[in-house]
Automatic annotation (TrEMBL):
The keyword Transmembrane helix applies. InterPro entries: NA-bd_OB-fold (IPR012340), TRAM_dom (IPR002792). Signal peptide: none annotated. It comes from Halorubrum ejinorense. The chain crosses the membrane at residues 6-24. This is TRAM domain-containing protein. Residues 50-116 form the TRAM domain. Keywords: Membrane, Transmembrane, Transmembrane helix.
Amino acid sequence: MLPSSPVVIGVAVAVALLALFVLVRRLRGPSAEARESKRAHEAAQKRDAPVEIGETYEFGVTELTDHHSGDEVAVGKVEGFVVFTEDVPGGLEPGDVIRAKVLSFNEGRTSADATFVGRA
């Protein structure tokens, strides 16, 4: 005979609803935001980079972040193309406009590494 106390029935219903929720989430797949991000990433891999190695570009800093090297880098975009700039001076803030020389492309050519040349 199965237990029929209200607590046991309530817990069983809660577990069943949780399992149903997880199942529905898995079947629905990624969110619209995740699908759009993937589409944009794939499109970026197919387009030609709007920057060239050895050239200097002027752009606004969108954020400062820690690079895998441990140093702080400035992140900005040239025609929507992400450029990570190292050797940035202290006091640099998002919104500042800088000049940077492109040194290399990252894997997939979806972004580039650059070195700080000066403030614009």
